From TrEMBL:
Species whose genome carries this gene: Flavobacterium granuli
Enzyme Commission no: 1.1.1.22
Residue intervals passing through the bilayer: none
Short name of any one Pfam family annotated for the protein: UDPG_MGDP_dh_N
Protein name: UDP-glucose 6-dehydrogenase
Lineage: Bacteria, Pseudomonadati, Bacteroidota, Flavobacteriia, Flavobacteriales
Length: 463
């Protein structure tokens, strides 16, 4: 089957960039990205591609090239489903906040709604692709909903998890380590897999396209995120031991990273990982393991989260302790609010939790982030429901200028590793601060010697 029309439900951090790259690389395929969120679709269609809702280096150029040619953003979900041969489901799958599995299981209500909508609308055979990260065996549930209409329309369900990392999404999509496609072993299943392989083959070489059964594919994505997060928690655990023993975690990371069995990537100690995926996917894995009675497996992976929470908490505790056991009415400046550099995504960012702890101690938090708005910062804090929005509003001060944000501050905390922070005029910042001037580098990006020579009291993670 030659694919000429694709639709993607969900115009978020995955759906938007992924479909933009497919459209750019496959000019013969019409790609329509749909979402219920009108504001988001409006922003994707903004004439000025600087205003698209997701910041990713290089994405604006790709959208500018393909949009209106073979890339479309729309709220007309039914129409797009009806016309497409392949439908990607790329909606959010957050941790459940209610009922059975609250705080652990993935909330599949958005996925189920998509499946029901596809079942209702589809009049011709469709390939439905799980792009969202889903618990293993979700395809079974989707299939049962799709097949329930009895109208003779045939559906093939594929699992095609997305491995892009925010901040490098465009590069990851253009040059992926691998594309994973899981499908049925039946003849129809294999045909569906081939149709999707043909799409990716427009720019990805065949040895990087991996085909598995659906369950392996679904579980591989959870496994990949669990392993990645585990590396961060492992090095963070060592960072605390380094601080007690006089070892330096950067030196330890370098030494172990040169072992080719370990590898050098993802060994950077920090205030803790954030992002929408790691925590939710591990919790989901823990929940699945428990649901099969595999308590040791569940406990093993849960430690990754426990360690991460500890790392965030100990960062805020250390700030309070170092500032003579009180931060009440003191100005603490946060450089960075996004969960990592080169993204405007703040979901589960360590900054949110550290700010929350410090506001509990009556600190005033000044924030400068090059890509995150005040509105977003406040809504992140409100989401924790620790205090009223009004109280949060009174404790958070946001700045469009980093130097102003640091003026008269008692301390600076680096929460995101934005490159620009490294190149600031730190002498100028020092001159404007209260003394002693403290810097808590939660990302280990600043130059210790330079800062100490200026006069800062500088503390990094793990040294
Ligand atoms: P997102 O929250 O940015 O986007 C999801 C979008 O789906 C939202 O705009 C929402 O309005 C829309 N939506 C929800 N239900 C809908 C419906 N019934 N019809 C139409 N639109 C609907 O989420 P994000 O970050 O793009 O994640 C999507 C999935 O991809 C998740 O399962 C996530 O785990 C996975 N993933 C995320 C990665 C990331 O870096 N953010 C990386 C790899 C996978």
């Amino acid at each position: 089957m030659e694919i000429t029309k694709i639709c993607c439900i969900g115009a978020g951090y995955v759906g938007g960039p992924t479909m933009a790259v497919i459209a750019q690389k496959c000019p013969h395929i019409q790609v329509t990205v749909v979402d219920l969120n009108e504001e988001r679709i409006l922003a994707w269609n903004d004439k000025n591609t600087n205003n698209i809702p997701i910041y990713e280096p290089g994405l604006d150029t790709i959208v500018a090239e393909a949009r209106g040619r073979n890339l479309f953003f729309s709220t007309e979900v039914d129409k797009a489903i009806d016309e497409a041969q392949i439908i990607f489901i790329s909606v959010n799958t957050p941790t459940k906040t209610y009922g059975k599995g609250k705080g652990m299981a993935a909330d599949l209500k958005y996925i189920e709604l998509c499946a029901r909508q596809i079942a209702r609308v589809a009049k011709s055979d469709k390939i439905v692709v799980e792009k969202s990260t889903l618990p293993v065996r979700t395809a079974e549930a989707i299939k049962s909903i799709l097949d329930s209409t009895g109208n003779g329309v045939q559906f093939q369900i594929l699992s095609n998890p997305e491995f892009l990392a925010e901040g490098t999404a465009v590069q990851d999509l253009l040059n992926p380590d691998r594309i994973l496609i899981g499908g049925d072993t039946t003849e129809e299943g294999q045909k569906a897999i081939q149709a999707l392989v043909d799409v990716y083959s427009n720019w990805v070489s065949s040895e990087k396209i991996l085909m598995t059964n659906v369950w392996s594919s679904e579980l591989s994505k959870l496994t990949a995120n669990a392993f990645l997060a585990q590396r961060i928690s492992s090095i963070n655990a060592m960072s605390e031991l380094c601080e007690k023993t006089g070892a330096d975690v950067n030196e330890v990371a370098k030494a172990i990273g040169m072992d080719s069995r370990i590898g050098a990537k993802f060994l950077k100690a920090s205030v803790g990982f954030g992002g929408s995926c790691f925590q939710k996917d591990i919790l989901n894995l823990v929940y699945i393991a428990k649901s099969y009675g595999l308590n040791e497996v569940a406990d093993y992976w849960e430690q990754v989260i426990i360690m991460n929470d500890h790392q965030k908490r100990r960062f805020s505790n250390n700030i309070v302790q170092t500032l003579y056991n009180t931060v009440a009415d003191k100005k603490i400046t946060f450089l960075g609010w996004a969960f990592k550099k080169d993204t405007n995504d703040t979901r589960e960012s360590a900054a949110i939790y550290v700010a929350n702890d410090l506001i509990n101690e009556h600190a005033n938090i000044a924030v400068y982030d090059p890509k995150v708005s005040r509105k977003k910062i406040l809504s992140d804090l409100d989401y924790l429901e620790t205090r009223t929005s009004e109280e949060n509003g009174k404790s958070i001060f946001t700045f469009g200028d980093p130097y102003l944000s640091c003026e008269k501050a008692h301390a600076i905390a680096v929460l995101t590793e934005w490159d620009e922070f490294v190149h600031y005029d730190w002498q100028k910042i020092y001159d404007g601060m209260q003394k002693p001037a403290f810097v808590f580098d939660g990302r280990n990006i600043l130059n210790k010697t330079e800062l100490e020579d200026i006069g800062f009291v500088y503390q990094a993670i793990g040294s």
